[in-house]
Design a protein that fits this description.
Layout: H1 6-11, E1 60-68, E2 79-87, E3 97-100, H2 110-113, H3 116-124, E4 127-131, H4 155-173, E5 181-186, H5 188-199, E6 206-210, E7 217-219, H6 222-234, H7 237-255, H8 259-265, H9 277-295, H10 303-311, H11 319-330, H12 342-345, H13 357-362, H14 364-375, E8 376-378, H15 394-405, H16 411-425, E9 435-440, E10 459-463, H17 481-497
Parallel strand pairs: 3-4, 3-5, 5-6, 6-9, 7-8, 9-10
Antiparallel strand pairs: 1-2, 2-4
Length: 507
């Protein structure tokens, strides 16, 4: 059954809601990326606002805030403007400021107008606002996205943008410089919310991060493991086994030099070059992403079952035949062959034009720079507990980072960036108060988030059976008892951070 309303579709994003299907190829070999790869650097956003969403509230107002390009160089007085939205529909005099922290996408009012956080804001008489992250939408501090100009794409810079804007909102917009401030975000936005509470406890009174990745890592092998778990949960063990068989059979054939057979079965534009290890890795990476993209098309939760039905059809004698037939049929109308060249893989990632479609819609180059220099989150298949083979390694992602931003990004530099991120913010032991971390049980970001946490007025909860960001939606009759408990927990903690005790009678 296909889900109908926008909010319910968001609830059904599952673990892969950050993947979109983007494919196509022209015969002159000007080819687009394999399906899903355009969004490989935006997984940590969790879920995004629905594309094309337009504000439903006449009280939502747009604004521009002037911020420093470099907050840490007193000799550099350059400034830029970033966009923001705010809404006083529920505000009562003396009420708090509730901020939905923006992520790697253009500013959008959806979460400010349609979420459980909005509902709590209404109860608390809060002023609502949301910001646009630097280097996205209409908020660029530089004229292009050259590697030199991306040096200002740093978490610390983003946090200072956020906190100075919040100070402006309290003083100049709300007219209350002492208003309490509660932050909320999903995915990377949730990460920023909790880190802002950590860095500025004198300004931020509390932060709720849903599916917030806080532990940087170069080897994010847990992602493929969790994808496999979801396939078992929403598909079947037979489907998982078919995929496992397909990928391992393909590996064995390539290792045995049977590349002609693989190239023909998967209709690659050129034969897989076994002398080029990166191309072999890219083949398996592309097949994995193409399959995942099909599973979440239209944000229809039932797609996983339908894909699994196709892969387990008795028509096919082997998993490899089933996977080949499915992918060829699935993308027959949008491409004549799969282009697996490394040059094509990095093609959009190297475009420094701010207005390039991949940068405007996906923030490909901007978000990629942060992963290569701060976060990692490289989705390898090095764990034996997942169905996608063993070929995707760190080498592919390091080569990608170097091709996009320069050879200065050595293995040591990338590791150091990840180490410093964890050192600066504490990874899974941040030792901050007044925070709530929520994750779904079936959520790959849970592996790099915080699932157990006890500190002053702080907690963490994993919702059984829930997916990415499902806990941020307004309470509805479709909520499970466990999901309802998570939403009530968020409301209770926010109420406490604002100075009211948690009620033992409300559930």
């Amino acid at each position: 059954m296909k889900l109908s309303s926008a909010s319910v579709r968001l609830a059904a994003l599952l673990l892969l809601a950050v993947i979109v299907v983007a494919s196509g190829k022209s015969i002159d070999k000007i080819r687009r990326l394999p399906p899903g790869i355009e969004r490989m650097f935006t997984r940590k956003d969790g879920i995004r606002p629905p594309k094309g969403y337009v504000s439903q509230s006449p009280r939502t107002v747009e604004g521009r805030f002037t911020s420093r390009v470099n907050h840490f160089d007193p000799q550099n007085r350059d400034t830029f403007e970033f966009s923001y939205l705010h809404n006083d529909q529920y505000y009562r005099q003396g009420g708090p400021l509730f901020v939905v922290v923006g992520g790697h996408y253009p500013v959008n009012p959806y979460f400010m107008e349609n979420s459980h956080f909005r509902d709590v804001a209404a109860l608390q008489g809060a002023w609502l606002a949301t910001n646009e992250h630097r280097y996205f939408g209409e908020s660029y501090p530089t004229e292009d996205l050259s590697t030199e100009n991306l040096r200002f794409m740093r978490t610390e810079q983003v946090l200072f943008d956020l906190i100075e804007w919040i100070d402006f909102l309290r003083r100049e917009v709300m007219g209350d410089p002492n208003a309490r401030v509660i932050l909320h975000g999903v995915g990377y936005g949730g990460t920023l919310a909790t880190w802002a509470r950590q860095r500025f406890p004198n300004i931020i009174d509390g932060a709720w991060g849903s599916s917030a990745p806080v532990r940087a890592t170069t080897n994010f092998e847990e992602f493929a493991v969790e994808v496999g778990n979801i396939i078992r949960e929403r598909g079947s063990d037979q489907c998982y086994n078919r995929i496992f068989q397909a990928f391992h059979t393909a590996e064995n054939l390539i290792d045995a030099g049977r590349t002609e057979m693989i190239s023909e079965m998967f209709n690659t534009c050129d034969p897989v070059d076994t002398d080029n290890p990166l191309e072999v890795e890219l083949f398996f990476f592309a097949m994995m992403f193409s399959l995942e993209a099909a599973m979440v098309e239209d944000y229809d939760i039932e797609n996983i079952g339908r894909v699994c039905d196709a892969l387990t059809d008795d028509e096919f004698g082997t998993g490899l035949e089933a996977l080949s037939a499915f992918l060829l049929n699935r993308y027959a109308d949008t491409r004549e062959c799969f282009d697996l060249s490394f040059e094509n893989f990095i093609r959009y990632l190297t475009d420094v034009d701010i207005n390039a479609p991949a940068n405007v819609e996906f923030g490909l180059r901007q978000a990629g720079y942060q992963d290569c220099t701060e976060f990692g989150y490289f989705e390898m298949t090095t764990s034996p507990d997942q169905p996608f083979g063993t070929k995707v390694t760190y080498d592919l992602f390091l080569a990608e980072c170097q091709a996009a931003y320069g050879d200065w990004l050595s293995k040591d530099v990338v590791y150091e960036g990840v180490r410093l991120t964890n050192f600066h913010f504490g990874a899974t032991d941040p030792r901050i108060t007044n925070v709530l971390y929520t994750n779904g049980e079936l959520d790959p970001l849970r592996a790099v988030s915080i699932t157990e946490y006890t500190n002053l007025l702080a907690n963490a909860r994993v919702t059984p059976g829930a997916f990415i960001g499902q806990d941020i939606l307004s309470i509805s009759g479709m909520d499970s008892e466990e999901l309802l408990e998570t939403k009530h927990m968020a409301e209770h903690y926010i109420t406490t951070w604002l100075g009211s005790p948690i009620s033992p009678f409300r559930k």
